Fold this sequence. Notes:
Layout: H1 2-31, H2 37-59, E1 65-71, E2 76-80, E3 84-86, E4 92-97, H3 105-108, E5 117-126, E6 129-137, H4 154-162, H5 178-184, E7 191-196, H6 202-216, H7 218-224, E8 226-229, H8 233-239, H9 242-245, E9 251-254, H10 271-278, H11 282-292, E10 299-304, E11 307-312, H12 313-325, H13 330-353, H14 360-372, H15 374-383, H16 389-398, H17 400-406, H18 412-418, H19 430-441, H20 445-472, H21 483-498, H22 504-509, E12 518-521, H23 529-537, E13 544-548, H24 562-570, E14 574-579, E15 581-582, H25 587-600, E16 608-609, E17 618-621, H26 628-639, E18 644-648, H27 653-663, E19 667-669, E20 678-682, H28 683-686, E21 691-697, H29 699-705, H30 709-717, E22 720-728, H31 737-740
Parallel strand pairs: 2-4, 7-13, 7-14, 8-9, 8-12, 12-13, 15-16, 17-22, 18-20, 18-21, 19-20, 21-22
Antiparallel strand pairs: 1-2, 1-5, 3-4, 5-6, 10-11
Helix pairs in contact: 1-2, 5-6, 6-7, 11-17, 11-19, 12-13, 13-14, 16-17, 16-19, 19-23, 20-21, 25-30, 26-27, 29-30
This protein binds adenosine-5'-triphosphate.
Residues 157, 160-161, 172, 175-177, 180, 196, 198-204, 549, 552, 583-584, 688, 690, 718 line the site of adenosine-5'-triphosphate (ATP).
Amino acid sequence: MEPEQEYVAMLYGRLDDLREQTSKRLAQSLRQSGGTPQMRSERDTSVAMYTDQLAQYSAVENGLAFGRLDFHNGERFYIGRIGLFDEDKEYEPLLMDWRAPAARPFYLATAASPDGVRRRRHLRTKQRKVVGLDDEVLDINSAELGRNEGLTGEATLLAALNATRTGQMSDIVATIQAEQDTIIRSELNGVVVVQGGPGTGKTAVALHRAAYLLYTHRRQLAKRGVLVVGPNSTFLRYISQVLPSLGETGVLLSTVGELFPGMNATGREPTEVAALKGRIEMADVVAAAVRDRQEAPPLVEVPFDQDVLRLDRRMISEARGRARRTRRAHNEARRTFAREIISTLANQVVNRLGRHLLDSADIDDIRRELRESEDVQAAINKLWPILSPQALLTELYANPKRLNRAMSKFTREERALMERSPDTPWTPADVPLLDEAAELLGEDDADAKARAERQRRQAVEYAQGVLDILDLEDDADPEILMATDLMDAYRLAERHGVDRYETAAERAAADRTWTFGHIIVDEAQELSAMAWRTLMRRCPSKSMTVVGDIAQTGDVGGATSWGHVLSPYVMNRWRLTELTVNYRTPAEIMEVAADVLASVDPELVPPTSVRETGVAPWVAAVSSFDELPSLISREVAEIGDGKVAVIVPAALLSSAGQAVAEAVPGASVGNDLEEAQTVVLGVADAKGLEFDSVVVVDPAGILAESPRGASDLYVALTRATQRLGVVHTGDLPNVLARLKA
Ligand SMILES: Nc1ncnc2c1ncn2[C@@H]1O[C@H](COP(=O)(O)OP(=O)(O)OP(=O)(O)O)[C@@H](O)[C@H]1O
């Protein structure tokens, strides 16, 4: 252990040197001021680069080096979170980045196929101290009997799997298994689907793949960024530390609901409404809703100049036809529509006044007056209003007549489901519809232009004002300042004020039309067809990693087959990969869950648990759920320091949650995974998470609550890393009969 400690201490020394150097460079860059705009922009880039580097050096502090490979030819290297080099010895590698091609045997070499490796060593460290070593000699003759054959670094792996959970997902960089490594390093292009049962490491693989892709294709991806999509904000918080611990900070984590900047769509709605909004036909509904706002009533009367002008349906339809034929988005095509209407109205005015009495300047004046007339503008606004996506949908949902027209192909009941009053909060299922609307409506660039023009005018006025003041001073040197000089000075100052280095992820988060270099979708089975449409729009290159488990689909609008979901966008050009080993759930618990899976579909095969705990799941029949707090207290005592989840049907969440939170110290309802020792959750919120101990309450309630009840129960049962309890009233559902035995 001593020599390893020395080597690891040397690596930390090198890391400290790098930190110091970078801090100095950062301080130097920050001290520079002024210069040409280009110099300032270069300075901003250096500041950003050094800041990122410092963040990376801090992030890799824990477990900086975790492995060593010894080869038969006498070569040896250490493997860690980042690459470190010896500057004094021609940049000889001291530590190899785990993502480098040469580090691959650390994950793939086996006794049967050693790839030149003699020994693989796992270093376990705590802070900067080496606290343990696990060696594997890759010699087919010395392979221990009964050893779990397929596993790499088994001792270290099992130690990681048995560790107490913290409420935050940790990285698996030291113990990535061969089937996972192949997916992590699979090529950037195209769509790769990672199908796997619960606990097979799909989320872990997806995040390590993001880190791998950024390392391997940095130039390509740093500019456009990588997006990781997760099912809800609790889950995103749970996984949020994994990429930073791998030294990667520039990845945007988002739910689909957050992809519309400025919108916090956290409203709730009945599942059948969300499912309806998720159907692909909704794209046609939104398009119809936009067309419905380009109205052509039989007659519109426009007061003008003590007269009344008339627009009949034919005139309006003609203008509308021209605007539509531009194929521009609604707000952008409005200019064409307005021009046509003004032209029609101008014709009427001219005819009334007598065309032969007017010259072209008079006609221009008439057009201008028409354009400026509030009555004319109001008429155009009514016939072709400027619309925001929010306004379009709010008015659609609130107006049964509009819904009838836009949803003519839907049943009366379905139309009724969509109705809601204007002050209802937006829900996640609204976001893809808002996104669709934003595409069809386009920017209202007249507004943006007016704003820019206003700013320009203000700048000129400001410059002129300063010049006027200077003019008053007798000794002012007229050579020194001209209004235009001042303008430039003003603009530059202003530009410098807003110039700020942002990562691709930060810029992407604020821009609805941002397109990413790669998108990773986790719990992808939950996404509706409309959500897929939104995501595909954000990734024109269709370079994606799609991670999920069809058997866990809980959302009624979610996926039942990957081909069905993906083929509209990439036909059959996607690659299916599968993970088959369950690292989370012990065999004793998985046996119970497997019966539930068979009830979802007898063809589905559960993943194989990598370990047993020797602890059988417990079951408690109670006469009422009032007994829950005392059962949970007992379980908390059993688990010691670990985390306990109480998973309940949505209908029980508030009552059971309150009872447990009041009676059990350190318990809370919802998503406080890090602080609380015990959390009470509905199944949907438990998706993707894991706990040392799980108590599933009212399984019959979970089964009955949704058409996908069996999948929900399967998800709930597979969240535990150590212990499982089931609490029920009445009869235990048949699918859990094994628990009675
Ligand atoms: N190679 C590995 N080394 C160490 N731990 C691992 C490894 N693979 C997976 N794990 C652990 O197994 C657990 C389950 O992983 P993860 O959450 O990624 O699974 P999942 O397939 O996404 O599960 P689910 O479908 O239930 O959400 C995590 O604690 C993860 O750290």
